[in-house]
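Budget justification note: compute hours in this period were largely spent on complex prediction jobs such as the one shown. Inputs:
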Amino acid sequence: QKEVEQDPGPLSVPEGAIVSLNCTYSNSAFQYFMWYRQYSRKGPELLMYTYSSGNKEDGRFTAQVDKSSKYISLFIRDSQPSDSATYLCAMSGIMKKTSYDKVIFGPGTSLSVIP
Amino acid sequence: DGGITQSPKYLFRKEGQNVTLSCEQNLNHDAMYWYRQDPGQGLRLIYYSQIVNDFQKGDIAEGYSVSREKKESFPLTVTSAQKNPTAFYLCASSGTSGLEQYFGPGTRLTVT
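Corresponding output:
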C-alpha cells in the first residue's frame, strides 16, 4: 500500500461546478497536510496547508482533514477554466528545526474545467 | 522578484554522459530539495539540504550527486550510473520547517 493515494483522474467538470479532490493516507503520524496546484509543464505551487484535523477556507478553496479516517479533501467552489491543472496532496509528520521529516506527495489528480 | 530558477528548461543528452541541472533561489531559504516527477507517480525526493555545505540523500539518490556551496544554489548532477534518467526534475526551497516548499519551473531531461 502506498503511503499516499490519490484518484489520478482525469476529472472533467463544467465551469461553475463544485469539485472535490481527495487523498487517503496510511501513516497516522502525518500532522501537516498540503495541497499543491501544478499547471502543465510547470512546477507545483502551494495552495493551502492545514495542521491536524478540521477545515480551512481560502476564497473558493476549502481544505478538509479527517485524521480518524486518514482522508483529506480539497473543495473548489465555482470552478473556473483557470483551475484546470493537476492537484497534488502532500503531507508530513512533526516538523523539527533540527531534522527534516520529509513531505510525501500524492501522484496528483488531473482536473479539467470545461467552459 | 523572489523565486527559484532552474535551467535549462529542456535538456537532451546521450546515454553515458553526466549532466548538471542548475537551481538558484533568492528567497533566502535555508533548505533546498531536488525531486523527480514521473507520470502517475508522486514527487520523489532525490536529495535535500537544510544548510550550506550539508546535504542528505532522499529516497532515490542512487545515480545522482549534489553540492551546496552557497545558500542560493543547489545543483544536481545526473550521472551515467542513473539507470533511467529521463524525467521531469523539480527543485524546491523552504524555510527550516520544510513545510511550505516553493518550486522552480522544472527541467525536463531526455536521455537517449
